[in-house]
């Protein structure tokens, strides 16, 4: 009986110590860690907010790139793709902002309120448990002390039977109080463990709320990107592909150039080509094919008198050749000199005409 009571007392004391330690662990370990968790969560929230701000600038710049592409001649479709990209990422960004709101309202704010209220609540709960435990323990110890005192009287008495009934009453009272104390300690232990578990469950529940929003954020992003990425990749798969309007203009330019080239090579001629190709086959005194009569400059008019050639100048009135104003063989040297001058003048005239034709062709 004594061994059973001693074992029972040691077990009761052990559970009592565990109960106190559970309360203390919540106050001294869980709550400080929770405060640190909230602080780290605020830092995380701030970092995500900065990312959101930077993302806005990034996608504004992407829209500007799309505007430039839309204004270009060969990449208007790329502008549409860039606009789509910016819009898709804007929708994803909106979902991210919703996740941030959930993170702040459903997790950080709730935990911050709990941790502030919890310190006072747990202190009061532990104190209440300790006071009741002390009261019940003292009441039990008092009954046990009375029983010992009664038993000493009974042992020293000549008539110990008269203490028997009273001793039985003390034993019953002590048993009742011990049972009451054990029940109280068991309930206190259960309450302490429940308080501990409730706090961890609340933390997990708040994390689940955030995880749902996070899942919605990632799910929407995945759906949008899975649908759009193949279209975007197809749009940029061929960098050499030009818009139909640009290709039509290229074809028109190409056909116009081919027509012009064909007309020049298959019978059409320009003054420039004539001057380059035909002049080499001309005799000095022959007229240039297709050339219009040109006004004779004053300095040459003296040599072209009356529209006659140099042969008219060299013929006398009787039809005989004149050399430097004389007839007969005695003027042979003067004739050679005069012939050289005539050839030189012909070349000057031909060169002047050729230059005029070339200038007209270039114009």
Short description:
The chain has eight helices and two strands. The chain is an all-alpha fold and 363 residues long.
Write structural notes for this entry.
This protein has eight helices and two strands; from the N terminus they run H-H-H-H-H-H-H-E-E-H. It is mainly α. Strands 1-2 form a two-stranded antiparallel sheet. Strand 1 and strand 2 form a beta hairpin. This is Brain-specific angiogenesis inhibitor 1-associated protein 2-like. Pfam families: IMD. It is a peripheral membrane protein.
Count of DSSP-assigned helices? 8
**Approximate shape:** rod-shaped
| Total E-strand runs | 2
Task: Please state roughly what percent of the residues sit in beta strands, choosing from under 5%, 5-15%, 15-25%, 25-35%, 35-45% or over 45%.
Answer: under 5%
Radius of gyration: 60 Å
Distance between the termini: 135 Å
Weakly predicted, low-confidence segments = 262-286, 305-337
Describe the sheet with the most strands. Answer: 2 strands, antiparallel
Strand line-up in the sheet with most strands: 1-2
Q: What is the H/E order? A: HHHHHHHEEH
Q: What is the share of helical residues?
A: over 70%
